[in-house]
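User: Sequence recovery, please. Input:
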């Protein structure tokens, strides 16, 4: 009995020693503290979007000719109606003058015929009075009546001749105007394809050629970006958008959805997208935005302020997180109910309390439910 009392403590001590040495070494981890903050539900573009101008015109001449005046430079700002370029116009100006002279001649002929018609009308009236007193023959009266009628027809025909001459003049003026390139709106000259003295020709059907002048309205810009067809049904015109540009890293710009394309692009069978247009709001006046910049958009579908949240990368499959149990240093799987979510934050509706500490990501291999960890440093707070 005495030996048994001695052996039992010895075995107990050995068991404690073996258990101590067999205990797994705690893994040092950085934990994050669950706290309240802002969570947004977003839709982002699947491929890079493009900054485009609301108005962009590739201006060309309708007819060919030699450039006689080049009144602009690339990068120059112009106003609506400003003359940009002219073709040689001496032949067109001569035709205009010819049409004006023809119009003047027709007006003179009409004046003559109308005056003659008035005179013939008065002669007819005098013969009618004489015929009433049997002082003029009926044949003479008939001849006078016919002559007055023909004169009146010539006078009326003169109006038609004048309208024809006016139309001919308008045609020549239109042809002359087509040899002058004007700005249809205020903007900046992006590119000029033509030099003084060069001969420019219009594009043949089906064969595109560079425009004579590329004009951009840089005061009105928008972003066109593709989103996944699955997300298109969630987007509505007027929704707020956050715009980021590769050219201005670290900055974001506010915008709103202005248009959603009424069709799905089938560029790839596995990736069908819908184009969304986003208009800028409140761009700083000192910021130079260029048409063609690449851009990304985040369309805000819903927003929660001061709601409990966790990093999205901390979520395990099945809506679980690894919560730290300070009483024994173990990680325990905790099921949570998720609300709004995006690539960075997820709203926690149930399952966690403010102040709980969780594993922020799965960057440590081998950590799972029951793993022993050692928090390194102070817990980080779940804030931006």
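Assistant: Recovered sequence (384 residues):
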């Amino acid at each position: 009995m005495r030996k048994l009392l001695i052996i039992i403590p010895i075995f107990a001590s050995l068991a404690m020693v073996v258990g101590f040495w067999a205990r797994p070494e705690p893994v040092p981890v950085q934990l994050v503290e669950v706290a309240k903050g802002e969570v947004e539900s977003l839709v982002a573009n699947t491929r890079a979007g493009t900054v485009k101008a609301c108005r962009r015109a590739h201006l060309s001449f309708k007819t060919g000719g030699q450039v006689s005046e080049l009144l602009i430079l690339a990068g120059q700002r112009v106003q609506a109606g400003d003359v940009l370029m002219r073709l040689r116009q001496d032949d067109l100006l001569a035709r205009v003058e010819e049409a004006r002279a023809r119009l003047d001649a027709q007006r003179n002929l009409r004046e003559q015929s109308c005056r003659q018609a008035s005179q013939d009308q008065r002669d007819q009236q005098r013969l009618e009075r004489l015929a009433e007193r049997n002082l003029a023959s009926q044949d003479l009266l008939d001849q006078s009546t016919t002559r007055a009628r023909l004169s009146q027809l010539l006078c009326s025909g003169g109006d038609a001749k004048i309208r024809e001459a006016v139309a001919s003049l308008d045609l020549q003026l239109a042809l002359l105007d087509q040899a002058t390139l004007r700005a249809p709106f205020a903007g900046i000259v992006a590119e000029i394809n033509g030099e003084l003295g060069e001969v420019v020709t219009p594009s043949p059907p089906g064969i595109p050629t560079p425009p004579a002048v590329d004009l951009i309205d840089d005061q009105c810009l928008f972003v066109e970006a593709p989103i996944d067809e699955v997300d298109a049904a969630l987007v509505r015109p007027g929704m707020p958008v956050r715009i980021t540009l590769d050219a201005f890293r670290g900055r974001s710009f506010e915008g709103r959805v202005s248009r959603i394309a009424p069709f799905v692009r089938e560029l790839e069978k596995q990736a069908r997208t819908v184009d969304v247009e986003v208009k800028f709001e409140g761009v700083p006046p000192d910021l130079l935005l260029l048409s063609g910049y690449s851009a990304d958009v985040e369309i805000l579908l819903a927003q929660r302020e001061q709601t409990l949240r966790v990093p999205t990368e901390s979520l395990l499959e099945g809506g679980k997180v690894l919560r730290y149990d300070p009483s024994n240093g173990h990680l325990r799987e905790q099921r949570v109910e998720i609300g709004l979510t995006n690539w960075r934050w997820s709203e926690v509706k149930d399952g966690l309390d403010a102040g709980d500490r969780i594993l922020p990501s799965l960057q440590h291999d081998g950590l799972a439910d029951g793993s022993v960890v050692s928090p390194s440093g102070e817990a980080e707070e779940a804030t931006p």
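Residues 17-22, 378-384 have pLDDT under 50 and may be disordered.
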